[in-house]
Design goal:
Strand content: 15-25%
Oligomer: single chain
Radius of gyration: 20 Å
Number of helices: 11
Distance between the termini: 40 Å
Helix content: 40-55%
CATH architecture of the largest domain: 2-Layer Sandwich
Shape: globular
Length: 341
């Protein structure tokens, strides 16, 4: 049975065709990075307009690459939460139209749960129960995942998401958007121990929360001093920029790794699944793999192409469909919390 999955929660328009045995028949992603780069972050209205332009061609290409026709689809699945309201509406409207026209079941997808499920798709085996960590531009969240249908949010950021902090610090350093890849690239030539930036909340292991706003402020103080916001006079050598990027990146990663290690111990779980755009960071993956070896837990990190937003991770809809969790055509969006520019 073929599933068409649609993802339009933020700034990627994506569609994929997967089977009920989790074979990936096609995956198409239209990125909007170039549209948002000059703003230094995602502009919701720009994103929704771009989705309107891309949604039909992306769906058409996904079906074409899968070598099937629309009539061969068994169900239509779409992300309806969380995300930018206008962006979600574009994908949901397209999914409803297809479900109605084709007489196919409609399945709702939670974008965050799908990020964790990407590990199940990528590694081809059951990964549940597990602790789930999502690190992206809009979210830094910890879940207790008892099954593909049982996700319990147990922690998260109290201010900036990790990816958001990367974007803002990149802008301070004069690096291009998106900030994650830019800081990773700059950090390669830097000394990650050059500056001892704070590790917020890391010394409070019982709090399953993250805070990156103060870390971001520490970078600002390093560049312009307390109480100042004008970066136009900041001049950095390439070595200085690299050292700040590497030191900041290391601080963020230490917070992420430290908190999930504590979470695994508290919940007495031995499996960690990680998804989201920041999980594509090579230094993050290196330190998380080292932590898994040192602390004896199984680690599944989605491959980089399944970390950033995509529709393959929407294969979680297969689990929902098999459990009889299909939707009526009055299904609505639930935007939730996603940060933009």
């Amino acid at each position: 049975m073929y599933f068409l999955t649609i993802e339009s929660s933020c700034d990627e328009t994506a569609a994929a065709v997967v089977t009920d045995s989790l074979d990936v028949c096609s995956s198409v992603v239209a990125s909007q990075d170039d549209l948002h780069r000059r703003f230094g972050g995602v502009v919701p209205e720009v994103a929704s307009r771009a989705h309107l332009e891309q949604i039909v061609p992306v769906i058409d290409e996904a079906v074409r690459r899968a070598g099937i026709t629309l009539n061969q689809l068994g169900a239509i699945a779409v992300v309806n939460t969380p995300g930018l309201a206008g962006s979600l509406l574009v994908g949901l409207t397209a999914a409803k139209a297809l479900a109605l026209a084709l007489g196919k079941p409609l399945v709702a997808i939670n974008h965050l749960q799908a990020h964790i499920y990407a590990c199940r798709v990528a590694f081809g085996g059951d990964v549940f129960p597990c602790v789930g960590l999502i690190v992206s531009g809009g979210h830094t969240s910890i879940y207790s995942c008892r099954s593909p249908l049982e996700f319990n949010a147990i922690g998260g950021t109290i201010d900036d998401a990790a990816g958001e902090a990367f974007d803002k610090v990149a802008a301070m350093l004069g690096l291009p958007y998106p900030g994650g890849p830019s800081i990773q690239k700059a950090a390669v030539n830097g000394n990650r121990n050059a500056i001892q930036f704070p590790r917020p909340l890391l010394d409070e292991p019982s709090r399953l929360q993250f805070s990156f706003s103060g870390l971001k402020t520490a970078v600002r103080y390093k560049l312009v001093g307390p109480g100042k916001t004008d970066f136009s006079q900041v001049t950095l050598t390439e070595k200085e920029r690299a050292d700040i990027a590497a030191s900041f990146q290391e601080a963020v990663i230490d917070c992420l790794v430290g908190k999930v290690i504590h979470t695994l111990r508290v919940l007495r779980m031995k499996t960690l699944c990680v998804g989201g755009g920041v999980a594509a960071n090579s230094r993050f993956r290196e330190k998380m793999e080292a932590a898994a070896q040192q602390n004896n837990f199984k680690l599944y990190i989605a491959p980089p192409k399944l970390c950033t937003d995509n529709a393959v991770m929407g294969a979680i809809a297969v689990e929902r469909f098999k459990a009889g969790l299909v939707e009526e055509l009055d299904l609505d969006i639930s935007a939730g919390l996603v940060r933009g520019a």
